[in-house]
Each structure stands twice: as C-alpha cells, then as structure tokens.
Amino acid sequence: MHPPATFETIRDLFAHRGDSEYGGEAVTQWEHAAQAALRAEAEGAGPALVVAALLHDVGHLLHGLPDDAPDRGIDDVHERRGADWLARSWPEAVVAPVRLHVPAKRYLCAVEPEYLAGLSAPSRQSLALQGGPFTAVEAEAFAREPFALDAVRLRRWDDAAKVPGAALVPIEHFRPHFAALAGGGRG
After folding, report:
1. In Å, how far are 17, 143, 185 from 9, measured between CA atoms?
2. Is residue 45 within 8 Å of residue 187, measured between CB atoms?
C-alpha cells in the first residue's frame, strides 16, 4: 500500500521512478507527465485538470511490473490504479479524468477515425490490451459520464506529450495547483 498522494509523496515518487521509460516512447515518465501538465496550463485549464494531466499516468509508477509489460500482453490498468490512489487525497475533478483517460482514448478511436490513425505504435499496442475502440453504444455511454469532456482534453494532452528533449520545469512549478486544491479550490 502506498502512502497518501500528497504533493511530497508525488514529488518523491517522480524522483525515484520518473526516469523510467514511458511505455516504448522516447520520453521518460516525468517528461511525459510534465509535458501533459504544461499543455494543460497553456490551454488555461484549472488546477484540478492541470494536476490530473500531471498525474494521469501515475499508476505506471505504483506497480512493480516491468517496462515491457505491454509486450508481454499485460495491461497494467494504470488508470484505475492511479485513480484509486489519488482518490484518497484529491477531489473527483482530479480523479475522474485520470480514471477516464484510457476510456477517452477508446472513445476518440470510435468517433474520430483520424484519431486512431494518428496514435503512436505503443499507444496502438496498449489500445488493443485496453479493449480497442468503443462500440457506438459504449461511446454514447462514455459521452454521458461526468468529467468525460475533461478526460478527452486530458487525452489529447497525453497524446501530444511525447516530445523528446522538450523544455520542462521542475515539479515545484506545479505546487500552486496542488495548493489551490488543498485549500478548497476544486477548479
């Protein structure tokens, strides 16, 4: 069991595991997380969605599976693992987009044919392990989920956050977003 997801434990988790490979992409877990959160900031997202963007793949850092788990046919269910951990400390406006970012990929593949064609090879591989594109019925059900639109926004930042050598900021840059949530701000 991991300790509660405070800013300090999150900072330590990235310090110890953030340099691991991000699922076959040419960036680390930290580079991917920071790029997604910076994209959220650039689009004017509120603190909850910036934090969700930063932590959307934290579930990858919480398990002991090898980096090549997808090559072995293993779905690490990182979205559920991460959301469950975050739910002990953060509001649903953070937790739900994290939990829904994989379903958002499946949704976008179902409703935007060009989206599927634009996925990276590792993302297509994980999509197959995650159940593939939604059916029309599943897509309609997803669209009715609270936070579905936030999850779709997060998904697009996720997909774009794979740029090797991109300029980054230290994790401390994001502390004010965490503080806003801890202070009662839910936006």
Report:
1. 12, 33, 20
2. no
The Cα 120–Cα 85 span in angstroms is 28
The per-residue DSSP string of 23-57 comes to TTSSSBHHHHHHHHHHHHHHTT--HHHHHHHHHTT
Tell me the whole-structure pTM to 2 decimals.
0.90
Domains and their CATH numbers in the chain: 7-182 (1.10.3210.10)
C-alpha radius of gyration, the chain, whole number: 15
- Quick one: tokens of 37? 């959160």
Rounded CA separation 106/88 (Å)? 26
Tokens, residue 53 = 């963007």
Residue pLDDT, tens place only, 36-79: 999 999 999 999 999 999 999 898 888 766 566 555 655 566 78
CB contact at 8 A, 136 and 110:
yes
Amino acid 161 reads: A
CB atoms under 10 Å from CB of 111, counted, come to: 15
